[in-house]
TrEMBL record:
Gene3D superfamilies: Dipeptide-binding Protein, Domain 3, Periplasmic binding protein-like II
Protein's name in the database: Peptide/nickel transport system substrate-binding protein
TM ranges: none
Biological process according to GO: peptide transport
Molecular-function GO term, any one: peptide transmembrane transporter activity
Signal peptide (UniProt feature, chain positions): 1-20
Domain Solute-binding protein family intervals: 89-428
One Gene Ontology cellular component: ATP-binding cassette (ABC) transporter complex
PANTHER family tied to this protein: MONOACYL PHOSPHATIDYLINOSITOL TETRAMANNOSIDE-BINDING PROTEIN LPQW-RELATED, PERIPLASMIC BINDING COMPONENT OF ABC TRANSPORTER
Organism: Halomonas organivorans
Keywords associated with the record: Signal
Length: 514
């Protein structure tokens, strides 16, 4: 049954109210009204939590796309494997696994798990879900360059075979894009509908396009029963509106509070999460003026990272020394100066297009500052800024000479090789720079073949150096995402990988219990 829930005040209205200029006394009134409304949203004594999400879904919450990370952040869709804080694989829907040979793995499937539609989790169902991912077009990023075949091994295990030796198969199977869903989720037209199809502590009951989604507690969850009665998620791409939602109490948890809003918010509600996320300037290596390596070198030299961190991010970010930031504590200790870069040359006023998107509030501000820096170096810069959903296709098609992107470097596997292959390999599905360089290819292949450990880390840094030598990417800063939480919230997950947000342990407390 689909349940419908009405939020007390639409975020669009809230945004207008904020832009009109809310006073502190209005905020205090709103907090009181919100507390009263929260009491009305309880089910059997347990409250529902209201979440303001950064971006609307791009593909109707299709789990084979980046929308999968919303499903995992709401704890509705689950994978065979989960990662611990160090990025090491841990049991989830698979209870154990072993590597039978360099190309073959066996995963035992958890007993007594049922999907939200009441059907049982079986080895056959796991095979079907994973096979759908391998056949998707485009494939999930985690499967870039990976040929994988899955088959049942009896009723309680699956065999995963790869065409090449792949030491990261368990890590790959932790990607939210490889979540296991019920049979009814997969439609004949190739779409995937996650409503009542997961195995997590919350069941997705309603999708309202790019406006909102609603989830209820799943009473037959195989693990611990959720503390909350449900989740009401609104998509609020406007950063000012997200900040206002936190300040006035209209949302209990807020994704990615813009730096510009932090000074307006009670510090008790603000939590900085160091992220493996790099704000990078991608340069088109295939077409346009920046196909010239010397002009890419000029663009790289023009970027003043310290000024961007100091002004746009108000010091709440780390200047980038490479693609991989301080969240990977081993990276800096292995780095050496990048060699083999060409000398810059005078652009002589050549025109370039600089693109970015509005969904992350800081990026348009970065674009303004970068335009000034690049023009000071001799370029004639034209900006193009849109919502991400309206610019992604052109970005991936190489329609821009330069593009600013905030990119998670360990989002999928807990290992940066997958991100590097996706963004910088010849066949990478997220290759904004249109890069195809033999030295980069060789370095990525070497890193991908090594087992997790020190040798793999050294190879990753060598691959990073090969990429940076091309000036296809100019890493500018590493973000610290700011997560907003009401003082009534306990147990919201502050996850550097952005895979978790609300889980079975998250709860709302009464003011008297605080």
């Amino acid at each position: 049954m689909t349940l419908r829930h009405v939020l007390p005040l639409p975020f669009a209205m809230l945004s207008l109210a904020m832009l009109a200029g809310c006073q502190q006394e209005d905020s205090d009134t709103a907090k009181t009204e919100t507390a009263e409304t929260a009491e009305a949203t309880t089910e059997q004594g347990d409250p529902r939590i209201r979440v303001a999400m950064l971006q609307p879904p791009r593909s109707g919450l299709n789990p084979l796309t980046d929308d999968a990370f919303k499903l995992s952040r709401w704890s509705t869709a689950e994978t065979l494997i989960r990662l611990d804080a160090d990025g090491s694989p841990q049991p989830f829907l698979a209870t154990e696994w072993e590597r039978l040979d360099p190309r073959t793995w066996r995963f035992a499937i958890r007993d007594d798990v049922i999907f939200h539609d009441g059907t049982p989790l079986t080895a056959k169902r796991v095979v079907a879900s994973l096979t759908a991912a391998t056949n998707a077009a485009p494939k999930p990023r985690i499967l870039d360059g990976v040929d994988m075949v899955i088959e049942a091994d009896g009723d309680d295990a699956v065999i995963v075979r790869t065409a090449e030796s792949d030491p990261l198969v368990p890590n790959r199977l932790s990607s939210p894009q490889l979540a296991i869903l019920a049979e009814q989720a997969y439609r004949d037209n190739g779409t995937v509908n996650p409503i009542e199809a997961g195995t997590g502590p919350f069941v997705l009951e309603e999708i309202n396009g790019t406006q909102s989604a609603h989830l209820d507690r799943f009473e037959d969850y195989w693990g611990e029963r959720a503390e909350l009665a449900g989740i009401d998620a609104d998509y609020v791409p406007d950063g000012t509106a997200r900040g206002a939602a936190l300040r006035t109490g209209e949302a209990d948890v807020v994704e990615a509070v813009p730096v510009s809003q932090v000074a307006l918010i009670d510090p008790e509600l603000i939590h900085e999460v160091p992220m493996p996320r790099t704000n990078t300037l991608y340069l088109n290596t295939e077409s346009g003026p920046l196909a010239d390596p010397a002009l890419r070198a000029t663009a790289r030299e023009a970027v003043d990272r310290e000024a961007i961190v100091r002004t746009v991010y108000e010091g709440r970010a780390d200047v980038a020394n490479g693609l991989l930031g301080p969240a990977l504590q081993w990276a800096d200790g292995l780095r050496s100066p990048v060699e083999g870069r060409p000398e810059p040359k005078d652009p002589n006023g050549v025109a370039i297009t600089l693109g970015t998107f509005t969904d992350r509030a800081e990026l348009p501000e970065v674009a303004v500052l970068l335009e000034q820096q690049l023009e000071a170096a001799g370029f004639d810069v034209q900006q193009e800024v849109r919502q991400y959903a309206h610019i992604e296709a052109d970005m991936l098609a190489g329609e821009f000479d330069a593009f600013i992107l905030s990119r998670a470097t360990m989002l999928d596997s807990g290992d940066p090789v997958a991100y590097m292959v996706s963004d910088f390999a010849c066949e990478g599905s997220f290759n904004i720079a249109q890069l195809c360089d033999p030295e980069v290819e060789a370095a990525l292949e070497k890193a991908a073949d090594l087992a997790p450990g020190e040798a793999r880390r050294e190879a990753i840094i060598d691959a990073e150096a090969a990429i940076l030598a091309t000036d296809a990417a100019v890493p500018m800063l590493h973000e610290r995402v700011i997560q907003g939480e009401s003082t009534r919230v306990e147990g919201a997950v502050r996850d550097p990988r952005e895979r978790e947000l609300i889980n079975e342990h998250t709860r709302l407390i009464d003011d008297g219990d605080a």
